[in-house]
Amino acid sequence: MTPSVLAGLTGAALVGLGLYGLILHPHPLRKLLAFNLMGSGVFLVFGIVARRGAAAGFRFDPIPQAMVITGIVVAFAASALAVALILRLSAQSGHATLDPEAWTRPSGEDAN
Amino acid sequence: MSALPYIDVGLALLVVAVGIWTVAARDLFAAVIGYVAYGLLLAFVWIRLYAPDVALTEAAVGGGVTGVLLITAGKRLGAVKNVAPEAQPGLPLRLLAGILAVLVASALGAAILTLPDPPPSLAPEAALAADGAGAGLGNPITAVLMSYRSFDTMLEKIVLILAVVGVWSVGADEAWGGAPAPLRQSRPYAPMVFLAQMLAPVGVLVGIHIFWTGANAPGGAFQGGALLAAMWMVTMMARLTEPPRIDARWLRLALVAGPAVFLVIGLAGAVIAGSFFAYPHSLAKPIILFIEAFMLVSIAAALPMLVAGPPSGRSDQ
User: Fold this and answer.
1) Domains of chain A
2) Domain ranges of chain B
3) Which of A88, A68, A80 shows the shortest CA–CA distance to B160?
4) Complex ipTM
5) Which chain B residues contact residue A95 at CB under 8 A?
6) Partner-chain contact A50 B106, CB within 8 Å
7) Do A3 and B48 make contact, defined as CB atoms within 8 angstroms?
8) pTM for the structure as a whole
9) Which phi and psi (to 5°) does residue A17 adopt?
10) CB of A97 within 8 Å of any CB in chain B?
C-alpha cells in the first residue's frame, strides 16, 4: 500500500469518526470539534488527489494543495463564526445546548 | 528507507487513535488538547504527501489557532453559564450513527481505492503559471495561490473579513465599538508572561521569515500570518497587550489592507497587462511579494480578532 492510499484511507476513517461525533455529541463545541475532524479528513482525501496528480516535474499537483491551504483558513473562519454564535446562544438562553426542549426546562435540572 | 512504510502505518494509526480520543474524551478541555495534538500529527502526514506548505498551515491554523479558539470558547462558556445537561443519546441512536459513519467512511475508502488511473492533473498548468505570470517564484504553491488562482485567494481574504464582521455582529448592541473580552480573565502568572516575552520577538521574526522565504520555498503569507497571529495571541494571553477596540481605525485598515491591495493590483492588471489579475512579466515577483506583505498584515490581524470574539460590554478588568 502506497503512502498516499494509506493517507486517503486515514482521511476516510476521520470523516466517519467526525460524522459519528457530530451526530452524537450533545455539546455544541464538541459538535464543532467533530465537524473540524470531518473537514480535515476531506482535506486529506483531497491531498492524495494532489499527490497522485504528480506531473510536469512536480512530485504533487500544486493546484489541489493550494486549494487545501485556502480551505484550512476558510474552515477556521467558519469555526470562529460558529463559536461566536454558540457563545451568544448560550448567553441568551442560559444553556449550552442545541436541544430546543432543554431551554424550556427549569434551569435547576441541569446543574451538573 | 525501509523503515518508512512502518512509520507511515504507525502515523496513520496514531492520527486515527488521537481522532478517536477527540471524539470520545469526556471532557471538552481534554478533547481540545487531543485536537491540537491531532493537528500536529496530521502535519506529518501532509509532509509524507510532499505537501510541506499544507503541513505548515495545518499545524499553525488547523491545530494551533483552532485549539486556542476552542479552549477560549470553553472557558467563556463555563464562565457564562452552567454546563449543558449531558443528555447522552440512547443505544439505538448510537448504533444508527455508528452504522452511518461506517457506511460513509467505507464509501469514501472505496472511492479512494478506485481513483482513475492515470490520475487527472493540473500540474502542467501550474508549471506554466510558475513560469509565466508568477515568474521567478520557486514555490509552485505560491505561484498557484497568487497567480493561477489569484481570484480565489483574494476572495478567501474577503471571507476572513466577513467572518470577522459576523463575529463582531453577534455581540450585544450596547457593546458595539468596544473591545472584545480579554483572552484570559484571571491575572496571568509569571511563567506565561516570561514565555510571551521570550517567544513573541523570536516568533515574529520566524513568521516574517516564513512569509519572505515562501516565494521560493515552503511557506508564504498564510503560514507566516498565522504565526504572527499566534504571537499576538500569546501576548494577549499573558495580558501584556489587550484586544483592541473594534472601532480602532488602524485595526480596520489592517483587516482590509490585504484584499484591498490585491484587488487594486488585480484591476490595474486589467489595464496594464491585458487581463484581470495579470501581472507584467518582468515585475511579477516583486508585485506578488508586495501583495503578500499586505495579506500577511490582514491575516495577522484577522485570526486573533476571530479568536477574541465579539466586543464585550462588561469592562472585565
Assistant:
1) 3-97 (1.10.287.3510)
2) 1-79, 122-317
3) A80
4) 0.87
5) 81-82, 84
6) no
7) yes
8) 0.87
9) -60, -45
10) yes
CB A78 within 8 A of CB A24: no
Write the single-letter amino acid at B89: P
| Residue A3, C-beta contacts closer than 8 angstroms, at least 6 positions apart | B4, B5, B8, B48, B49
What is the Cα–Cα distance from A43 to B65, expressed in whole angstroms? 18
How high is the mean pLDDT in each 10-residue block of chain B (317 residues)? Answer: 81 92 86 91 88 88 87 79 60 88 90 79 71 66 78 88 92 82 78 89 92 82 90 89 88 91 86 76 80 91 91 60
Q: Nearest CB to A7: which of B45, B148, B156?
A: B45
pLDDT tens digits, A59-72 = 777 888 888 988 99
Using a CB–CB cutoff of 8 Å, tell me whether A38 touches chain B. Answer: no
What confidence score (pLDDT) does residue B316 get? 44
User: Would residue B311 be called left, alpha or beta, if left means φ above 0 and alpha means ψ between -120 and 50 degrees?
Assistant: beta
